[in-house]
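Practice problem: predict the structure.
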Amino acid sequence: MNRVKELRMLHGFTQDELGERLGIQKAAVSKYETGRVPLPPDTLMKLCDIFSVSADYLLGRDKVTPLFKKSHSLSSSFSPITETVGVPLVGKVHAGLPMLAEENITEYIPTPADDVAVDEYFYMEVEGDCMTGDFIPEGALVLVRMQPMVENSQIAVVRLDNEVLLRRVKRLDKHLVLIPSNPKYEPMIVSGNDAKIVGRVVEVRIRGL
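Answer:
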């Protein structure tokens, strides 16, 4: 991925927002991200300041990546400084791929560094209304801590065959009971060998709130 685009997504900017900070049009940002137009020196220096990286990194000469490293919040300089990390948002999960495979990641969401540990968390966008009884509507983002086991009745992300489900989990002998919180849906009982717990839900975010 182009490093301008990589850093923009890591910090949660749209192309319009980055263009505003650089004093250029969205179309110019798009051209820099695709490599169709080389970065002018003044724009390169501005990007280095915005993202706190070296020119060598932006130009691909430095292989040290800033992903998942702590960085200062890019809000107005008059706002309090908050250290954040970019936590990956997982979209549609492709069969057979690890949860955090590049093909599954759609963007990086800035998250307070004190709330998460490096490489142990990801966000997932909720599909469907199975968990509305726990105030987790469709479209919400859940912050997931990766762990192979959860305690009874905790909400977890579970991989079942080629599906990824969000459910409360209870153990029943060698089986898992996957319990939705919407009474429209029935619990599922699956073999512990067929289902893999990916992680536990620790936070719910509603976009725009």
